[in-house]
Amino acid sequence: MSKKVVSITDDAWKTGDFVPDTALYKVVHSGHSLPSEVTLRKGQRFPRCEACDEPVAFRLRRSLPDSNASSVFRIELYQLPVQTKGSRAS
């Protein structure tokens, strides 16, 4: 039986790419301790690390309904904060 080979880059995006769907994304960055997950809205750009220029990788965790699509108020995340021991959630 043939096995399907899936590239590790499938369903993965990096800093600067456009967010394809409003969703919860896993954050992967070896250079610094960043939040482990982030919610982003469709059409935004994936954010950068605040401490370096190395790309941050993002993987889809869970799609979310874009319930605020008609809202005028929006917050756009341009960079991810480096987490310190005191700022990590328990």
Can you put this structure into words, describing what you see?
- There is one protein chain.
- The protein is mainly β.
- Helices cover about 0% and strands about 25% of the residues.
- The chain is built from no helices and six strands.
- Strands 1-5-2-3 form a four-stranded antiparallel sheet, with no helix packed on it.
- A hairpin with an 8-residue loop joins strand 2 and strand 3.
List keywords for this structure.
0% helix; 90 residues; mainly beta; single chain; two-stranded parallel sheet
Provide a compact summary of the structure.
The chain is mainly β. It is built from no helices and six strands. The strands form two sheets. Strands 1-5-2-3 form a four-stranded antiparallel beta sheet, with no helix packed on it.
